[in-house]
Amino acid sequence: MPSRDPKQFVLDIERPHEQQLENFVVGANAELLDSLTAAPREFRGYWIFGTVSSGRSHLLRGSCLAARHEACYVGCADYGENFAGLLAALAYAAEHGSLVAIDDVGVVAGHGDAEERLIQIYQRLLGAAGRLLIAHTHPASQLAWSLPDLASRLASLEHHQIQPLDDVEKAELLRQRAQNRGYRLSNAVLDYWLTRGPRDMGALLTDLDTLDKASLAHQRLVTVPLLKQVLGY
């Protein structure tokens, strides 16, 4: 994998229209969103956990966009087998940004050198009254950390579990995503889809990508007949 300019570690985000705090479908997560958008006067550390496609990455990236050049985002899973690149990103975050967001942090659990970087990030932000946002599928206590000092620090962060969306909120999210891509999903399509389709938000978003491609390929609006044809529901 080619090397990256360290400046790319700050706001390395490709689709900002999908990742703003303003277009996060809040549902039962209003308390968390209010806390993230408040102006802190002291160190605030968050551990945000939830299922895949629950919106935790959206919150991290949206918080970075809101903080602009004061933020540093590290998507641990984005580096794949390039662990040296991940270490470099964490080292950069240990020195830059008043807000540091670390997504998919489970990738570094059990790797002492990476965990040392996390301690450095924590300590710097603690002393600078900054903000630390970490996301994973489970609470910090359920990961196998190799450094006890790091385990205790992460366990002390404010833990917030992302609450799943109900059908009305799922429809709003799908409607927003479609509008961002330049087309409209009717109530009839959304009602049919959410009645017969998958319950998982990640699966619904995958379906949306499939519908999007089919609509472009066939030069047709997304209708119930097209949905039936393409998705088989």
SSE layout and pairing:
Elements: H1 30-37, E1 44-49, H2 56-67, E2 71-75, H3 83-93, E3 99-103, H4 112-127, E4 131-136, H5 148-155, E5 158-161, H6 167-180, H7 187-196, H8 201-218, H9 224-231
Parallel strand pairs: 1-4, 1-5, 2-3, 3-4
How would you describe what is shown here?
The chain is elongated. The protein has nine helices and five strands; from the N terminus they run H-E-H-E-H-E-H-E-H-E-H-H-H-H. The protein folds into two domains: 6-161, P-loop containing nucleotide triphosphate hydrolases (Rossmann fold, 3-Layer(aba) Sandwich), CATH 3.40.50.300; 167-231. The chain is α/β, with parallel strands linked by helices and 233 residues long. The longest helix has 18 residues, at 201-218. Strand 2 (71-75), helix 3 (83-93) and strand 3 form a beta-alpha-beta unit. Strands 2-3-4-1-5 form a five-stranded parallel sheet, with helices on both faces. It has helices spanning 30-37, 56-67, 83-93, 112-127, 148-155, 167-180, 187-196, 201-218, 224-231; strands at 44-49, 71-75, 99-103, 131-136, 158-161.
Mean pLDDT: 89
Estimate the strand proportion. Answer: 5-15%
> CATH homologous superfamily of the largest domain?
P-loop containing nucleotide triphosphate hydrolases
Give the uncertain stretches in residue-range form.
Answer: 1-14
Q: What is the CATH topology classification name of the largest domain?
A: Rossmann fold
The proportion of residues forming helix, as a percent range, comes to 40-55%
Q: Could you give the count of β-strands?
A: 5
Question: Any idea of the CATH class of the largest domain?
Answer: Alpha Beta
CATH architecture of the largest domain: 3-Layer(aba) Sandwich
Report Rg.
19 Å
Topology pattern, helix = H, strand = E: HEHEHEHEHEHHHH
Largest sheet: 5 strands, parallel
* Oligomeric category: single chain
Distance between the termini: 40 Å
DSSP helical segment count: 9
